[in-house]
Every structure is written in structure tokens, then in C-alpha cells.
Amino acid sequence: MQYHNPVLPGMHPDPTIARAGEDFYLAVSSFEYFPGVPLFHSTDLVSWERVGHCLTRDSQLDLRGREASDGIYAPTLRHHDGTFYMVTTDVGGDDGGHFIVTADDPAGEWSDPLYVDAGGIDPDLFFDTDGTAYFQYTDGEALPEYRIRQAEIDLDTGELGDVRQLWRGIEGGFAEAPHIYERDGIYYLITAEGGTHTDHMVTVGRSDDPTGPFEPHPDNPVLSHRGRPMHPLSAMGHADMIQAPDGSWWMVFLGIRQYGPNPGVHHLGRETFLAPVTWEDGWPIVNDGEPIDPDMTVESLPGDSPGGLASPARPFETTFDGELDDSWQFRRNPDPATYSLPGEGLSLVGKTDTLDDPASTFVGRPQSHFDCRAEIDLGFDPDDGEEAGLALVMNESHHYEIGVGREGGETVARVRLRIGEVAETVASIPAAGEDHRLVVDVTTEEYTFRYDDGDGEPTELATAATRYLSTEVAGGFTGVYIGPYALGAGTETVTPAQVRRFAYEPAE
Predict the structure, then answer these.
(1) Structural domain boundaries, residue 367
(2) Are 369 and 265 in the same domain?
(3) How many degrees, rounded to 5, is the angle at CA 17 between CA 172 and CA 179?
(4) What is the pLDDT of residues 249-289, one digit of tens each?
(5) Are residues 259 and 341 located together in one domain of the fold?
(6) Quick one: 115 and 245 in the same domain?
(7) Whether residue 176 lies in the annotated active site
């Protein structure tokens, strides 16, 4: 049986997985995007459907004023005695830190946060067979000196017992992303080391007790693509494991797909990958010790599945019809005054004059393919200084947009590129009427921007290199998001832009 990696393409980093009966649930980091912690469901570990988010209310998560790549880091998802637990870290806020939310139904409402007084990032929960709950996390004075620490936790109060150092990593530092498991009376600790780029790796230790000490795997790291510069997949790490109902074990983990000359770049973000796990001499072996490939062959998958791809790999089209589905996210908590769903289309009101502003009006979905097309049908008759259109956003300093705006009494369609300190309008043509179609055709290395006013085929306006929206150029921990935006004229009078249709079509 074959399946394709990544199983969740586009920005789906730091995957964590839990099982309830025949059902698997997977959550990923969301950083400055809201709602926070996207949540997916599967019965075969390959075909994933989004079922919502864990953090959907301002009372759970307030991201206003956050820098790019701050916010929600590295969740852990667990199911215990009929309750789902999600523990994560809110980074960069005055009231941030570790917290836990719970739910009886992961696709429903999650509780308000229970905060845990501990430093660092990457929290984990482990429930021992005697009912004791252990809290593992990464902490240290500086990144190279990060260590895995542990304490018992009271899940009613969030209070921790005595804190101990659990693991310092096989390289003496930068150990993160801890998870503990029990198998046949032996306790296993997996962590990530080497940073989250091309030196990333997964290491394992085992012990007779969940408090350690942990003996390192003789073949650590058990998963890494470091030293494989020509492989199409890189940065394998930050893993979680699960046992399926049929007894098989599996690992989910992040990775990237780089392109271009060595060293390559990537702009789709860190994605979620899957590999089988077997056991030998009481140790886990990932994919028989072989590298992870885009096309994987296994004897079988859990459940009744022919294999396949996750929902982000499918074509997507919406006319909104009074709702935003769960695939959409905002950059930080949305201002209700700028977004509305009147029943036909999505109405956007711009309140800033540029997407450089963290409070700008933008809603998007992860770009999940190197080769694809995205387009919107826009109803908009702007006043001077107003603009709306389709944007590709990496962060406030690296974004491209094709929009319709008005300047000097003339309505124009234009393409603007923001690359670091430089912002430039690279194309502008007159745009007649109120009906506009804006198109971005995408290849691995290039975005092509086209405009159509309904008189014929879309007119090519400009091209731009994808590499300037890559992590290697722009920095941070996210990937490119695609979606509609609106900009205002800095006055109280604003014209709503009506996004009547959005379509995303992968070419792969």
C-alpha cells in the first residue's frame, strides 16, 4: 500500500497526535494565526479532515499586538479517561506561557485555559498507568542550553510538584519537543534536537520509570535527514508517536520541501509527515532506518483506507454563503468591524493603509502546493486610497499582493511586492467597473499575477520569485498564506469590498 508525504502539506508544523478508539486526532502549531491550533481527524493516519480549532475565543487566546511567529508554539494533544487535553505555550504575550484546555468532543468547544507556572516551551502531558500525570517541557537560560524538565502536575489547579531535569540531549543541549510513552512496562522519551532547520533530528531514550534516568537509543538519532543535501525532504524532526488499534506504531513529524540550488529554500512552511515505526530489542525503529520519501510503501494502513492525501491537497472553492469554514485563519484576533458575512460573499473593510501593519485586514489559508492557482471574484468600487485584492503573506515584511485600488481619481489593478525594507508597485493598469477577477498562477519558483475585468482572458501584470517569501529569506516559523485583503484610506469613511468567490486549484 502506498501513501504520499507530506500527509498535511503547507504550514502544519509540530504535529501531535492522539487516539480515541478507531479515531485519530492531530493538532499543529499556529503561531500568530487565529483561531489557534488547527485540529484534524482521520481513521487511517493519511486522509485527514479538518474538524476545527482548539482555541476559537478571545478569552482563550489574545494575539493582538504580537510579532510575526510569536503566539502558539508546539501543542501536545492527549486523550485520557474520556477527556481530550491540549497543552501548549503562548509565546510573546504579557499573559502568555504554558496552558491546558480540555474538551469531551475535540470537534466542539474547548475550555478556557488553565495556566501552568513554568518557563520555556514545548509542553507535554503523560498519564501513567497509576493515574499520575506528568508535565514535561523544554527550558533553559539560552537556546543551546535548553534541557527537558519534568514535574508531576495537578490537572485541577495546574500546580506542579518538584521539577527535575529529565534529559539534556545526545549533543548536550538544544533538546526540545519532549513526549513520553509507555510500552510493555518500559517508558520512552522522544525529543528533537539540532534546531528546526536542516540539522533537525529525533532522539529516543528509555527507562524503567517515567522520571528516568533515560538510557539513549544506541542508534540515535532515530530520524534525521541531516547530511542529505540532495534529498527532496529535509529538516525531519519534532515528532509524536501513536499506536493504532491493530497494534502497529506510527510517527508523525515535521519536515520541509526545499528547492533551488544547495542550500535550498522553502516557502510552504514546515509540513506534517508520517512514517511507520517497528520495534527491535525494545527500541523503536522509524521506517526501517531508511530516509523518509515523498512516496511511501507500507504493508497496510490503519482502518479501511486505500491511502491518499489530506484535505489541503484537494481543490477548494467557496462563495462563503454566510460562513467561513475552518480552513480560514486571521493574522491575530480579527476586528469584527472589518469582516462580515452578509449571506452572499465575504465583506472586508480596510482599516490600515498597508499589509505591513499587524492589524491589517487579511484572512487566508496555507499555500499547500508548489504548483497551483488561486483566484478571487471581487465586487469593489473603491474611493481614493482604498484597495482590496488577493495577497500572499509570509509576514509583515515579506508579502505580495494583486489588488484593485483608486488613486488620483482612477481605478487601477496593481501588483505590489514587499521584500524586507523595499516596497514597490511593479505593475498598474486601468480597471473598469465594479467586477474584478484577480488570479495568481504559481509554480515552484514563481508567482504570476493576472487581472480580468470580464472582457476576456486574464491579463498578465507581473511575476515575482517565490524565494523572497521563503523562511530562509523572510525568517520566522510560518509559511505562505493565500487570501483576500482590504486596505483603507485612513479615514472613517470606507467602502466594503465584496469577495464573492475564492478558488484554490492544485496542479500537482
Answers:
(1) 316-506
(2) no
(3) 25
(4) 999 999 999 999 877 999 999 999 999 999 999 999 999 99
(5) no
(6) yes
(7) yes
For the chain, 508 residues long, the average pLDDT of each consecutive 10-residue run is 94 98 98 98 95 97 95 98 98 89 97 96 97 94 78 98 94 88 98 93 98 96 93 96 97 96 92 98 97 95 65 80 92 96 94 95 97 97 95 98 93 98 96 95 98 85 98 97 92 86 91
Residue 359 lies in a domain: yes
Cα 304 to its chain centre, rounded Å, is 27
Is 154 catalytic? The answer is no
Examine the domain organization and report whether 103 and 208 are in the same domain.
yes
- In angstroms, the Cα distances linking 64 to 69, 125, 209 are 13, 28, 42
CATH at 19: 2.115.10.20
What is the count of structural domains for the chain?
A: 2
Torsion angle of alpha carbons 116, 121, 126, 131, nearest 10°?
-10
- CB atoms under 10 Å from CB of 405, counted, come to 25
Helix (H) and strand (E) counts in the chain:
1, 39
Tell me which of 44, 122, 176, 377 is the catalytic residue. Answer: 176
pLDDT in tens, 180-227: 999 999 999 999 999 899 999 999 999 999 999 999 999 999 999 998
Q: Is residue 302 part of a domain?
A: no
> Residue 39: inside a domain, yes or no?
yes
